[in-house]
Design a protein that fits this description.
With 591 residues, the protein is an all-alpha fold. It has one domain: Growth Hormone, Chain: A. The chain contains 26 helices and 3 strands. A hairpin with a 4-residue loop joins strand 1 and strand 2. Helix 4 packs antiparallel against helix 9, helix 7 packs across helix 16 and helix 7 packs antiparallel against helix 23.
C-alpha cells in the first residue's frame, strides 16, 4: 500500500530536517553517542525479556527440576502451561503499561515494573519447596506482567528520545538486548546443568542459579533509570516545556537555540497542542491530565484507534506484524530448542543444550547488522528477505524431518543438517523480524495514542507468543515435521503482508507518521506543516477542517486563542498571520 503523496510543504520540511540531521548508519550512532548510550542502558529491560525467554528451555530438561515438577514436565499440555504462563502474564502487563507510561512517565513506569519483576523472581525461587509447581506458575506469571509492560515501555522510551536518523537503530537495540539475554541464558543453562552431575544426583542449584541471576540486570535497570532523562515528548505533553527543551538539546548534544532543536521542539509542541484541543472539543471534562482522567482517556485513546480508516490501518500494521513475528515459529525454537534438537537426533541432553547455545550466539550476531544499518536499508526489504529465508529453512527442516524421523540414529549427517538449518532460521529472524517488528510498532502512532498503540501491538505479540508456547509441544508430539510446515506457510504469509500492507517508515519523525498514514492528527482535527524561508524563518501552517475546529468555525480563532508559546523564550515570536485564507493559517517564528 503506497503512502499518501506529500505536499510541497511537507517535502520541504522533510528535506530541510534531513539536511540538518545528516545520513543514517554507524556514523550517525557515533554522532548521537549520548542517546545511543541511554538507549543501550534502557535495553536492559530487553535483556531481562530475552533471558526469561531462553532460560526456561534448558531448565525444563534438567533432571532436578523435573523431580520437583513431576507431571508438569512429563505431560505435554501441562508443560505448555508451565512455559506459556509467562506469556499470558506479559499480555496482561501490556494492558496496563500504557496507563503507567502516561501517568508516571516512561521512565518511572520502567522502574515500577522492575520492582514487580523482582517479586516474581523471588516467588519462582520458592519452587524448590513442596508446592514447587504452584510457585513456578505464580512467579512466572508475575515476572511476565513486568516483562510484558517493559516490552512496551522500553521501545516507547527509546523511540521518543531518539532522533529520526537513528530511531530504527535505537529501537532495534531492544531486539539486540533480547537476543543477548537469550544467548547468555542458554550458556548459563549449559554450564549449570553440570552442578551435581546431569542425572539423579543433579543439584537444585542447577536450575535455581539461572533463575536467581536475572535479578542482577533487573536491579541494575531499576537503579540506573533514576539517572536517565525523561522523554521530551512526555514532558511537553504534560506542560513541562522548558525542561523538555533542555532534555532535547542535551540528548542531541546541541545548544537549546540550535535550528534543529527549534524544529523538533516545534513539531512535538504542535502535535501536543492539537491533540489536547481535540480532547477539549470532544471530552472537555477530561482536559486536566490527572491520573483519573488519564485512566479514562486511555479507553478514549484505544477506541480512537478504531474510528478512522487511517488509524485502523496503523492498528492492522502493528498487530498483524507482531502476529506474524511470533508465528514465524521463533519462540517455538527458543522455548523448546533442546527438545527439538533431541527430536532431530542429537545424542544427549548436554549436546542438545550445546546446540541450543549456538542458537543464542547465531541470533545475537545476526541482529548486530540490523542495529547498524536498519535506517539505511529500511524496514520492508529487510523483513521480506528475512521471511523468505525463514520459510525456506522451515521447508528444508520439514523435508529432512519427514524422511528421517524414524532413522536419526543411522543418519547422523541428516540430523546435523537439520540442526544447521535451525541455526540459519534464527539468523534470518535475527536481522529482520526480530528488530524490525519492534521498530514498526513503536513509531507508527501519534503522541497521545503512542503508549496505548504500542501496548496493543505488543499485546498481539504476547498473545501469539502464549499460543505458540501452548501448541508447540503438542504439535511436535502429534504432527512432528508438520510443525515446521505450519510455521513455514505462515512465515511466507508474513512476507506477503509486509509487501502489500506496510509502508516504509525509515528516516521520518514520529510526527510525520500522520502524513505517511493519511491521517490528520489523532482525531483528524488539524494538520500542520513546517517550512523554512531563505531567511531562516520557521513557518507553521495550520490547515483545519472547518467542520472540526476545536473552538470556532473561523479557521483563525484557534491560533489566536491563548496558548503557551512554543518558543517561549521570545515573547512575541508566535503571531498569527494577518493574511486570511479559507483553508490555511500560518504563523512565522524566528529560529
Amino acid at each position: 500500500m503506497s503512502p499518501p503523496v506529500q505536499s510541497g510543504v511537507d517535502g520541504a520540511a522533510l528535506a530541510r530536517r534531513q539536511a540538518l540531521t545528516g545520513a543514517s548508519g554507524p556514523a550517525a550512532l557515533v554522532k548521537n553517542i549520548k542517546v545511543f548510550g541511554i538507549a543501550c542502558f534502557a535495553c536492559l529491560g530487553g535483556f531481562v525479556y530475552g533471558y526469561n525467554q531462553g532460560v526456561f528451555s534448558g531448565i525444563l530438561t534438567m533432571t532436578s527440576f523435573g523431580n520437583h515438577m513431576g507431571e508438569w514436565v512429563s505431560d505435554s499440555t501441562k508443560k505448555g502451561w508451565l512455559t506459556s504462563i509467562f506469556e499470558l502474564g506479559a499480555w496482561f502487563g501490556c494492558l496496563y503499561s500504557g496507563f503507567l507510561a502516561e501517568t508516571l512517565s516512561r521512565k518511572y513506569a520502567i522502574m515500577a515494573n522492575v520492582c514487580l519483576f523482582v517479586v516474581g523472581v523471588v516467588v519462582q525461587c520458592l519452587g524448590v519447596t513442596p508446592g514447587g509447581a504452584s510457585c513456578i506458575l505464580a512467579g512466572r506469571f508475575i515476572t511476565g506482567l513486568a516483562v510484558g509492560a517493559m516490552s512496551v515501555n522500553v521501545p516507547n522510551y527509546n523511540a521518543e528520545v531518539a532522533p529520526p536518523e537513528v530511531r530504527g537503530s535505537l529501537v532495534a537495540l531492544q531486539q539486540l538486548a533480547i537476543t543477548a539475554g537469550i544467548m547468555v541464558s542458554f550458556w548459563i543453562d549449559y554450564g549449570t546443568n553440570n552442578i551435581g552431575g546431569t542425572g539423579k544426583t543433579q543439584s537444585d542449584a542447577a536450575w535455581l542459579v539461572p533463575i536467581c541471576l536475572q535479578l542482577i540486570p533487573g536491579l541494575a535497570l531499576g537503579v540506573g533509570m533514576l539517572f536517565m532523562p525523561f522523554s521530551p515528548r512526555w514532558l511537553i505533553h504534560h506542560g513541562r516545556e522548558s525542561e523538555a527543551r533542555h532534555v532535547l538539546a542535551s540528548l542531541r548534544s546541541l545548544n537549546e537555540d540550535h535550528e534543529l532543536i527549534e524544529l523538533e521542539f516545534l513539531e512535538i509542541k504542535a502535535q501536543s497542542v492539537f491533540e489536547k484541543r481535540s480532547t477539549a472539543l470532544q471530552w472537555p471534562h477530561l482536559t486536566a491530565l490527572t491520573p483519573w482522567n488519564i485512566f479514562k482517556l486511555q479507553f478514549v485513546a484505544i477506541a480512537s484507534l478504531f474510528k478512522t480508516r487511517a488509524m485502523f490501518r496503523r492498528v492492522i500494521v502493528a498487530t498483524v506484524t507482531m502476529f506474524f513475528q511470533q508465528f514465524t515459529g521463533i519462540n517455538a525454537v527458543l522455548y523448546y530448542a533442546p527438545s527439538i534438537f533431541a527430536a532431530l537426533g542429537t545424542s544427549s541432553n548436554t549436546t542438545s543444550l550445546l546446540a541450543t547455545g549456538v542458537v543464542g550466539v547465531a541470533m545475537f550476531l545476526a541482529t548486530i547488522p540490523a542495529v547498524l544499518y536498519i535506517d539505511n536499508l529500511g524496514r520492508k526489504p529487510v523483513m521480506i528477505t528475512g521471511a523468505i529465508g525463514m520459510g525456506i529453512c522451515h521447508a528444508i527442516i520439514a523435508i529432512l524431518f519427514g524422511i528421517n524421523v524414524h532413522q536419526w540414529a543411522t543418519h547422523k549427517a541428516a540430523g546435523w543438517a537439520a540442526v544447521t538449518f535451525v541455526w540459519l532460521f534464527v539468523v534470518n529472524f535475527g536481522y529482520s523480524w526480530g528488530p524490525c517488528g519492534w521498530v514498526i510498532i513503536s513509531e507508527v502512532w501519534p503522541m497521545s495514542n503512542r503508549a496505548y498503540g504500542i501496548a496493543l501491538g505488543a499485546s498481539s505479540n504476547w498473545m501469539s507468543n502464549f499460543i505458540v508456547g501452548q501448541i508447540t509441544p503438542i504439535m511436535l508430539k502429534k504432527i512432528t515435521y508438520g510443525t515446521f510446515i505450519f510455521f513455514g506457510i505462515l512465515t511466507f504469509g508474513g512476507a506477503v503482508f509486509i509487501w502489500l500492507g506496510v509502508p516504509e517508515t525509515k528516516r521520518m519523525t514520529l510526527e510525520e507518521m500522520d502524513v505517511l498514514f493519511g491521517s490528520i492528527g489523532v482525531a483528524e482535527a488539524v494538520r500542520f506543516f513546517i517550512t523554512f524561508s531563505p531567511t531562516a524563518l520557521c513557518t507553521l501552517h495550520i490547515l483545519p477542517p472547518l467542520s472540526s475546529l476545536p473552538y470556532s468555525s473561523d479557521p483563525f480563532i484557534p491560533l489566536q486563542t491563548p496558548i503557551t508559546n512554543p518558543l517561549s523564550r521570545t515573547p512575541n515570536a508566535w503571531q498569527p498571520s494577518t493574511k486570511k485564507s479559507a483553508s490555511t493559517t500560518s504563523c512565522t517564528v524566528s529560529v
